[in-house]
Structures are given as C-alpha cells and as structure tokens.
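Quick one before lunch.
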Amino acid sequence: MADLDDIQEVRKAGKLFYPEIKQQTPGFFLKGSGNYDWGMKNRLSQIFNPLTGNTLMLAFDHGYFQGPTTGLERVDLSVMPLEPYCDTLMLTRGILRSIVPGSTQRSIALRASSGPSILKEMSNEVLALDIQECIRLNASCLAVQVFIGGEFETQSVDNLSRMINLGNQYGIPVMAVTAVGKDMARDARYFRLASRICAELGAHIVKTYYIEDGFDTISSSCPVPIVIAGGKKIPELDALRMARNALDQGANGVDMGRNIFQSENPVAMIQAVRAVVHEAASAEAGYEIYLKKCGGRK
Ligand code: R5P
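Model of the ribose-5-phosphate complex:
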C-alpha cells in the first residue's frame, strides 16, 4: 500500500523535480514521444509544430456538457473565423460534421468521452466514439476526460485506458484531460498527481491547468507533453501572461477556449496567443498585438 506521504509536498526535499533540466527525447522533437511508431509521431507533428515544439489548440467542445454556452451559440459565426490561426481544432464530432469544412488544414482533436450534463454528476462519463469513427473523421488526437479523486474516478481511468489501447492500435494519440471536481483544491499537489497518473496510464498528451505556485513541478514530473486549458474568462493580458508562464515553465502549448472565443475581439486574441505560443512573444508584446489587431476597437 503506497504511503500517503509519497504524494505530500515534496519541495521540502530540494530539487527533486529538476525543472531546470529538460528531459531528453532522442530522435524526435516532442517530450517523451521518441519511441512511438511513425503514424503516431506524424499525428503528433500535426498538433505540435516541429519548429517550435508547441501547439495552439482551440478548444470549443464545451457544448458536449454545457450546450450553447456563451460564445458558442453559433459556432459557424463565432469560431470558424478563428480557424486559420490555430494548429488544432478541439471539438465534438457533431460540430465537426455539421460546421467544419472537410477542406480544413487544421488537425483535429476529437472529444471522445461524454456523459452527464452540467446538471448532474459530471465524472460519470463513458466513451463516446469507436475507433473506426475516429479514423473516419481523420482525428489526429482523441480527448478523454479523467476525474482523479472524483466519484467515478475508476470509470474515467478505464475510459482513458481503453481509448489508449485503441489509439495505440492505429497510431492515434490520446490526450487525457484532467478534470477537477468543484470541491477539490486546484494546487500543484493535485495536478502533479492527476497528470502523472494519466501519463503512467499511457496518455500521449496531458491537458491540465496552469497554477501560479509550482506549475514547473507538474510539467517536469509528467514525462509527456502538457498543454494548459484556459479556464474561465479573465482579462486578455492576464490570459496571455498565463500562457507565457506555462510555456516558460515546461508546457508545450495551450488548449484554450473561453479566453479566446469569449474575448471582446476573438480574432485579435487568437493572434496574440499565437505570438506567445509560436513566436516566443512576451505577454506584453502579445497584448500589443491584441490591441493593434483590434484596430482601436476592443
Ligand atoms: C472542458 O471540459 C473542455 O474540455 C474544454 O475544452 C477545456 O476546458 C478548455 O477550454 P477552456 O480554455 O475554456 O477552459
């Protein structure tokens, strides 16, 4: 039986996480991904730009449990103008088939788990797609929600493991999305635990949240690439600072939704985020881009 002390705050022991020393990945540009087969590496390269090592995923899958939430009432009008500026569209198959042109050059991160709406216990998810459907839709990545510490934790871990088994058969990466229950602490200890469990289970990408204190220990103790969700809408400069800090502390990109599509000027905001993700722009430089692209209108 593992001792609970093992997941206690470990900074006290000094530099155990070595966030200043990058993990080596012989033969491939992406963290922890050097031993995969060709198809898996190629799909990961459609998500993460091999030149920068980073990705700008645009997340707009929220409707699978929230319906037409703010900013996503008309995906065709609000999100499609953002499509040229991202690397990857993260969405459900329903929106993919009904709204996104088959001619898109963006890679697809397909929401592969589903379950209760916001009206019920959200951790009670199941797998939503079979692997043939994922192949038919040319997915570059499959996203499965994992509720570590949640009521249906084991079920969500099983969802992840089964999708990884299927993805590995066909060379399709699986992104584990760490979901935090309403009453859980959003701290480094929790996100280290959740992210590492997902990676140990075989997730090829882990999506988690940025936190101010100790994010570098989350990214350094997770042996595969981490992308951060944007979370609730915050002021544009703060969102750009969050992205910059996460990248500086070991993340390989963002999977951002509300802080882009709920911005006062989403097209300007996504270009600012892009500069931060792919051009090493500071948050302030990104904000200048945002203001400029707004053309005086925020
Ligand atoms: C949440 O369950 C969805 O997977 C979203 O894709 C995720 O939360 C990222 O979106 P946001 O940046 O709005 O948090």
